[in-house]
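FIELD: query
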Amino acid sequence: MKNIFKILALLPLFAACDDLFEPALENNRDEDAMIEDPGYAQGFLANAYILLPYQTGSVSDVATDDAVTNDMSSSYMKMATGAWDSDFDPMSQWQGRYNAIQYVNLFLENVDKIVWANDERFGRMFKDRLKGEAYGLRALHMYHLLRAHGGKISDGTLMGIPLILESENADSDFNHSRESYAKCVDQIISDANEAIKLLPQEYKTFATNEIPQRYQEIGVTNASDYNRVCGETFRGLMNARIAASVKAQVALMAASPAFTESGVKWEDAANYAADVLNQIDGISGIDQEGGVWYVNADKVTNYGTGGSPAEIIWRGSTSNNNDIEKENFPPSLYGSGRVNPTQNLVEAFPMLNGYPVADAASGYDLSDPYANRDPRLSNYIIYNGSEQGPSNTQIITGIYGTTTDVINKESGLSTRTGYYMRKHTRKECNPNSNSNTTAIHYSARIRFTEIFLIYAEAANEAWGPMGSSTNNYSAYDVIKAIRQRAGIGLDNGDAYLESVKGDKDKMRDLIRNERRIELCFENFRFWDLRRWNSGINEAAKGIQISQNTDGSLTFNTLDKVEARSYKDYMIYGPIPYSETQKWSNLIQNKGW
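FIELD: result
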């Protein structure tokens, strides 16, 4: 948002408009006012940024088999345990996305009428960039809307959402019908393509030879002139790389088992992802610190105004606080222990040699279950005996412990599963009110790791584990690089990966598991289970650890910490009940 305010401040330097600090004759200004006031016009676009759908922490994961919460008032817990219906939908995107799309549509209808700068060269560049942002934002908001509300109606037809491409007013007919799912996907991809044509790949300090030809042809030959419009000052805004990432996201969703009638092919999703990855030279561009991007938040300030580490395609703003630690640190460290990882998720992490814990070759020891495990386990999850906090406090969750860190010791504070979430947190923080030590945090909206995993999943389905079509890397290559980065199978050449590289089905299972691990607690699991049309009702499990008289420990799995109560039709979310009651043309998804 800081960058948006900078834009609003800079535009008067170029534009012929009234003084932005001169109050309007009336407080009520309609959309016609944007024609004479570029700053006011940009406020419409700014609203589409303010309404972005991204969440700053783990939220929906507690409604899956990856986590539960100890907050008994959580709407996500209520949803997962049987309260989800069309009148109670914590995952709804209906109002927020359509509000944003209305602002974008108003902007697009007027952008060509506005004199963005007295100098026609600058006016053209500003108009192109702002129009590109608008198309990219509309694609993004539509994607999140379709993901939450697209689905099959009672006759089995796969339907999307109402496509609203023009602004609405009091005289509009609001009784919209839903378009086909395929048409919605086409529109999202079309908008993303428009954004890609108009926007720079990223905002940076450009050299003269990097000025696009279309601007050179109108006399923009000085790099400083182009940087005034597309330079690094505008980092944080929609760019072509973000728009290309949205294309990959929507294509992956549409090609998935729950949406096969969309007509989108796996190879489309793979190639869209490759378009993004080729910008960083594919596999060679993988960030070796990408798996712990949140730990390196202090380094964000080293990348210039709005800059990001190599892992991050798009991020939220930075903040200096200990809010997420207050929420998720164990209670002995003055936290509320809100997100409790499940035993289900813990078992998904392989052994250090790369084999799943259930494989006989893994060397997994039931009496010492956290030894020789995937290093990502200790990076993302606090288990019994882990250390956390600025003083490296040992956390005991076993029933032999003496603090409120013990499983089910105190409602609303203690873990319900025997685990606490470490991911997103900074150990340097101390939420103790007497210390109140803070650290830099930021949220990752889109990461390169997500795009790598999109490619791996889609490429495996399209061409098999080792196939790559015209690309220079395969699903196998991607998974090998991700697991090597994590430290998996380094001593045995990742023998497990080698054993499945000739089997598309086994590679699918491995790719899905790697996605589960790499993206855990980032609000992906809820949507992944549904688009895969698999496993949405697996109960959340935990672990109870007791100490024997000789000091050894006994580990007992708790098979049903929290049951999941989803019906089969719930792989698709509902259209809001209130909307279906108002509009006769708005058909509800089956079962809701």
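FIELD: remark
Residues 120-149 form the longest helix (30 residues).
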